[in-house]
Amino acid sequence: MTAELVRGQNHTLPQTRLEIRVSAGSPVVAGATLGDERGTVRGAEWIAHPASHRVPGLEVSRQAAADHRLAVDLDALPAEVHRVTVVLALPMGAGRPVSFGAVAAPFVAVTGLDGTEIATFTLTGLDTESAVSALELYRRQGAWKVRAVGQGYAAGLAGLFADQGVAEAAETAAAIQEAVASGLARSVTPPPRTTEGERVRHPAGPAAAGAQAPAPPVPEAQPAEPLGDPASARTEAPGGGPIDYAHPRRQTSAPPPPPPTAPPAAPGQPPRPVAGDATGWSMDERLYNQIWGMFEDLARAVAAYRSAVDFAESRMDQELDRALSDPRNRIGGAGDRAREAARAKRDELTGRAREALERDLAELAAESAVVEPALPAAYAGWDNPVWHAYRVPMEIPMALRLGDLRLGEAPDLRIPLLVRLPLERGIWIDSGRTASEAAASTTGDQLRGLAVETAVTLAARLLAVYPAGDFSVHVVDPAGSAAGQLSPLVGSGVLAGPPAAGAEGVASVLAHLTRRVDLVQMAIRAGAADALPPDLDTGEHLLIVNDFPHGFDDRAVTQLRYLADEGPSVGVHLLMVADREDARAYGPVLDPLWRSLLRITPVADDHLADPWVGHAWTYEPLRTPQGSRVLEQVLALVAEARRGGRR
Prior knowledge:
By secondary structure, the protein is of the alpha+beta class. Helix content is 31%, strand content 22%.
């Protein structure tokens, strides 16, 4: 099974004779360096590059190219070599890219000699760098492992070699670029790559309905909160201007995956749906993109239907106005015939639009029926059997499911609401009364209880999708009013400490997390991550605040706003259970706090809007099946894995 690495992650190598394959959207230079126990490269003879493409145990390409294969025999390396670093650089020359930020993200795979992938890594997040340490193979206790590095250098190869201790770093880098320049005339520019998967489906779209889909309205005009990619949705761009709804960190250089296999469709029927038919480097990413494709398809199909219905109604009104404006049609049966003809035409257009919508909905329902059972735990509902085989993961997934979204025209079709991980904004579970039918039929005490239960299930999902010990949960319950709902977290022992109660408990937890944010931010700015205190937990943290603003003074409110604004960038996330009306006493000082959080509700409510046509979508929180103990079982496995990691 292929290990899809993220920056800093490692994986054990099952064999010592390997190939390292590099795929990029434009020509790059591929090389490798040998390092001793401290990672120091002792001389130019320990560098494999186009001008000297062989060293003991290594062979690299002789020129820049878009695709490379590096041969590695770890058993043939000198005994004093403990590290092999794969290096990529952009060739210099007029008209060529000067930084990795201007080219497609390179993809590196470690494979066996038969081509079977062992580990892969996509080098995302590069900007001004022109050279990068991509991977390193290192020896640890007699075994070899691979680690995803992704460390870029704006100073190019000279800076990279200097960082590895090469004495004549600038001269070596210049010699490599000179050798590359002499071989560039032999390189061939690769054909353009497909950047995004096309969802060629729904042949009976808006045109079949007899009307064009309306242009997307300005999102700010919608009463609902915009949902681009929910993890990055904002009511306003940071510097003003239009909102950018682009998916954060989405791969734009991913090659199209091998076409999925499915039983052939009957003649004249649409292709049968397949789980994971979107583009992406991994199945998680393909499923993620497929779900968002389904979300967009449903939004546009319903928009086309609504537009067609509005057009039919408007046309009927115009025809009636024209017919009845003639006095001769106001007497006798002429007026009645005109009304009947106008209504018949309206019904015909509406019927055609409904037929087109039904076809689209049938295809989406068939796709949902295939995709939902194939979802991993992070994307699946609590009733999915995947939770029965749950095991604590070794790495975090791409996204997390927060609930479901649906539209009134398709009440039985639900699209998972996914947010990217790590969380890029906090979450606010609104425990107040709303205008929805579900909220109207629920008492205030019931809403507050359901809101805390929703917070507990979200916290459990976050704990479940992170590796053991990499995610901690803190709870602030000033009045102790949520003891019953918090019992799954307390009883399993997955909390970082008991729920904090009273003003002193609130102050203690906020001070602890504020200190962590301050220290990590200072270490990042100073480039001194090694200087962090040894007792500082550098994993991800979630703070659940119940019944805000009870127990909060002005200082605590300021700290909470600070955590909401600065915490996500350094791994501290906020999950608030609050009724905004209860916080009115603070006035507009808290308005930025509410706007910075993604608002969800403990019952069904139509307060979220898509970025394409601005529909008000009904959000439904995830619930565990009645009588099921899946939540407790998952938390027990998380707690057991955490105890095992501390032994």
